[in-house]
Model the fold of this input.
Amino acid sequence: MAEITLVEAIDLALGFEMARDPTIVLLGEDIGANGGVFRATNGLQARFGRERVIDTPLAEAGIAGVAIGMAAMGLKPVAEIQFSGFIYPTIDQMINHASRLRNRTRGRLTCPMVLRSPCGAGIHAPEHHSESPEAIFAHMPGLRVVAPSTPARAYGLLLAAIRDPDPVVFLEPTRLYRLFREEVVDDGEALPLDACFISREGRDATVVTWGASHAEVMGAAEALAQRGVEIEVVDLATLKPYDSETILKSVEKTGRCLIVHEAPRTAGFGAEIAAEVAERALYSLLAPVKRVTGYDVVVPLSKLEKQYMPSVERIVDAVQKCMEAA
Amino acid sequence: MGFDFHIDYLQLLSPAGQPSDSAGTIVEDEGLLVGFHRAMTRARAFDTKAIALQRTGQLGTFASALGQEAIGVGVAKAMRREDLLVPSYRDHAAQFLRGVRMTEILLYWGGDERGSDFAKARADFPICVPVGTQVAHAVGAAYAFKLRKEDRVVVCFIGDGGTSNGGFYEALNMAGVWRVPLVVVVNNNGWAISTPRALESAAETLAQKAIAAGVEGLQVDGNDVLAVHQAARSAIEKARSGAGPKVIEAVSYRLGDHTTADDATRYRDPESVRAAWAREPIGRLRSLLVARGLWSKEQEAALLVDCAEEVEREVASYLATPAPTSDFMFDHLFATLPPSMLRQRDEARRHAPAPGAEHG
Done:
């Protein structure tokens, strides 16, 4: 057993599953000898060969489209999009084909593929490298959207995503790739998809989050605990289809609900959760639902990115306002 | 220093039905020639009926293949059963030869997803509407066959307008690098809805677009089923042997509207359509068959009756198919419907029309 980073956990999960399942192929830009620009596929081409770890031409829509053809013909492609801003050309293929191939052929052809991509800001990256596109994909019927928040969850959720018989968009928080280490057992145990994780139990307020913001929420939970406020941290993990029951149960217990995400606020996935809570748990609420999110602005270049991303301070402040409301 | 390239053009049968000197043994193959004629006539009979169904409110928007029957028939007859077809939306002539039923094509255009659940041709891709996106699927499928060392070739159809789409270039470029067993057939029917070929590309041929991807390209007379078939057979068998992908540009003419929702008289000269009828593929092959004594008036009359009867049977089967229920929207969204969606399925059930109310 070893303590590893989130990006190492991705690499570990890919290696475990490729050794177990010969139908898995990886494809993407610079994923072979280079091991991926973030090293998420480090060493895999040497282990599994060029035919299964494919350095593709620089064409993201093509990568997604080729993965769909592979998946329909019995392979399990795991495609890497190199940086978050380059995922947008895949949208045509993901919404018009990957997400609906099963439905439009009544299950005759299916699309068991994973589209992996780094996402989010916070590593002083160049322009178009700090996007948070999860809500865009979450709005596409027939897709799963997963955003891990720790090395162990990244390992287990990626295994689940690969084993899932349907397409999964797997958004890896770049900022957490090497932020901290965690013990990960390389036992091939998948975590459940479509289920939240309770990262920390608490009685006073439910804070729902996912991906990179999970780290800030956990930091805020520590700070709030010192002031006597115990928040329950719900890691959404799978955004679509999502586990509303766990969220509602938590809100019924705490009576307060906050949602924290880095993506822009309007039509962000937090709006969906707020609406669900309003429809199904309004009478459990002691205070209005609150969101702490990225602003409705273009994600800034590195000098302002810290002010853009939800900080521990903003989260603590919002929770305290919720506590003051009732 | 420069780089010269040349695109071959293949025509084996003149518009008048005269075989060229280079036609070779294909014109001796009676069974093949008659088979071409039957398949093209059948496709046209279907087209005529499908348009009539749309005009009488019994079918949704439909894309006719009128005048382009030689492409689908010539290509599909060069495929093996285990090969894979990745069609566009005007390729039912090929799909019928793959075993797709007329009923299925009618269900599709009639608004029922079951039309893409082919009872035969189980692996073939469904009709692709987003132009150009299907070529990457064909490349991925061909990669899978190559990786597993299967003896299968992928055939992908696209139109002239489709070759302007980035998806075509990206996919072809990958196919060239990976040398996958793929044949891309461009149905250059001259029109992308109202946009003529000249406004789609300044390239002299569409076949030459292959060259930039390191892929061979060839242009054929798409109204000449013999040329289409010979080119397709050669390309498919070369691909099967590991020689890599190929692009075949089949030059034809869209004698009909783009779809039943289109009115081509708004943008093209009726005279050019009349002129194109002189080059259409079915009469051309029939001239050859008649000249060789392989086809009589009686056989033609019998074929037309056969086709009409089959079409009527298939139309009856289409019209008799009960409408899908609301559950159909949910049944195949995922392998297993997530519990979080059960409430939505129930809501749709509660608001469904009474049985029979929505039929037709």
